[in-house]
Amino acid sequence: MARFVVGASLKAYFGRERTMTWARAVDELSRAHPAVRSGAVEPFAIPGFLSIAEVGAVAADGPLRVGAQDAHWDDGAFTGEVSPRQLAEFGVSLVEVGHAERRRHFGETDETVARKTDAILAAGLTPLVCVGEESEGSPPDAARAAVRQLQASLAPALAAGRDGRVLVAYEPVWAIGAPEPAPDEHIRVVCAELRAALRAMGMAADSAVLYGGSAGPGLLSRIGAAVDGLFLGRFAHDPEAFGRILDEAGSLAQSDGVRRPGTE
């Protein structure tokens, strides 16, 4: 089981040429990195839909997992949508769902996120469930809000008896795009509760809690014991910066004092 999971979504920032330049560089870094090769760090990349096939071809037979930024909950008469089963045919292994931008701009709700999460697990893929509170408040209040979102997102899957791997990206909405991430202690409190919630719900042992929301260099070194990785945004647009995060994760993974709870 990888100690840290590190990945990035390109959202809709890049066109085809820049996406492929970035993907080739990140794939090369991942293949050569000793922490990735040892299995201590698991990297992933989430391009736009139009680039999934090409990025998947670049990453084929390598350690870089390829994800999708969204999925619909079914096949059939859903014009303009893409289903988890279709994504699986193109080599996608994880699917982001419930991002704050999807909720804000496209009206996604806990119900639609839950239906998507269930469909993703049913297709044998890993959901990357995004959770996070709208406004900055106390860490305990933020933890309760994030856990409620996670429980709502997994309710149909649990009712159906699905217990696959789940990645959770804790992204406080007020920290997305901000100059700095949430305070270290805030992250520790919320992510500890999310980890506990995953265990309580009986999700797979390799499920993990990542922090996103203006994550960058140095953060993992400060909060590494409290999280299982980082979900990167604009910082990772520079492949060399992505590589520096892999370095940081690799160094931490070698430390005897940094272990994922429940895996000692």
Would you kindly provide a written description of the structure presented here, covering whatever features stand out?
With 264 residues, this protein is an alpha/beta fold. It has a single domain (4-253), classed as TIM Barrel (Alpha-Beta Barrel). The protein has 10 helices and 8 strands. The protein has helices at residues 16-32, 34-37, 52-59, 84-89, 100-106, 110-122, 139-159, 184-200, 219-223, 239-253; strands spanning 4-9, 41-46, 65-68, 94-97, 126-131, 167-170, 208-211, 229-232. An 8-stranded parallel sheet has the order 7-6-5-4-3-2-1-8. One of its GO terms (cellular component) is cytosol.
Summarize the structure.
Homodimer. The protein is built from ten helices and eight strands.
Cα Rg: 17 Å
Number of E-type strands = 8
* Share of residues in strands: 5-15%
Q: What fold name stands as the CATH topology?
A: TIM Barrel
Task: Give the overall shape, derived from the CA principal axes.
Answer: globular
CATH class: Alpha Beta
Helix proportion range: 40-55%
CATH architecture: Alpha-Beta Barrel
Strand order of the largest sheet: 7-6-5-4-3-2-1-8
End-to-end C-alpha gap: 11 Å
**What is the count of helical runs?**
10
Structural class: alpha/beta
| Tally of separate domains | 1
User: Can you say what the CATH homologous superfamily is?
Assistant: Aldolase class I
Q: pLDDT average, as an integer?
A: 95
The ordered string of helix (H) and strand (E) elements is EHHEHEHEHHEHEHEHEH
Unreliable residue runs: none
